[in-house]
Amino acid sequence: MRTKFFTAAFLRKLHLKELLAVLFILLAIYFFRSQRHELYSLIPAIEKADQGWVVIGVLVTAAYILLQAGMYVFSFRAVGARLDTVKSTELFLKRNLLSVFLPAGGISSLAYLPQSLRRTGLHKQQIHQASGIYGFVGILSVFLVGIPVVGYAMFHAATMKDAAWGLGAICALLALVVWLVRSMQSKGKAYQLLVKYFPGAAHQVDDIFTFHLSVPAFMNTVLSSVLIEVAGVAHLYLSMLAVGVTPSLEAACVGYIVATIFLIISPFLRGLGAIELSLAYILNSYGYSTLQALEITLLFRLFEFWLPLVAGIFAFALKGRELVLRLVPPILIFLLGMVNIFSVLTPPLSYRMHILRAYIPGTSIHATNLLVVFLGLVLLVTATFLIRGLRSAWIVALSVSLLSVLGHIGKALDYEEASLALVTSIILLVTAKQYRVKSNPQLVNIGVVTALATLVVVLIFGTIGFYFLNVRHFGIDFTWQQSIRHAFHCFMLLEDDGLQPVTRFGKEFMSAIRVLGVSSWAFLFYTIIRPYLHVAQQTNTNLEKARFYLSQYGDSPMDYFKVGQDKLLFISEKHEGFIAYRVAGSFAIVLEEPVCSEDNKLMLLIEFEQQCRKMGLRPAFYRVDEDSTYYFSHLKKKKMLIGQEAIMDIRDFTLSGKDKKSLRNGLNSLANKGYVTAFHVAPQTPAMLAELRAVSDEWLHQYEVKELTFSQGLFDESSVRDQDIITVSDAEGKIVAFLNIIPDYAPGECTYDLIRKRSDAPGGVMDALIIALIQDAQQKELQFLNLGMVPMSGIVQPANTAEKMVKYAYEKLRFFRHYQGLREFKEKYATEWTNKYLVYEHDFDLIQLPAALSKVMQP
Question: Which of 175, 474, 477, 590 could be joined to 581 by an S-S link, Cβ 3.0–4.6 Å?
Answer without folding.
Answer: 590
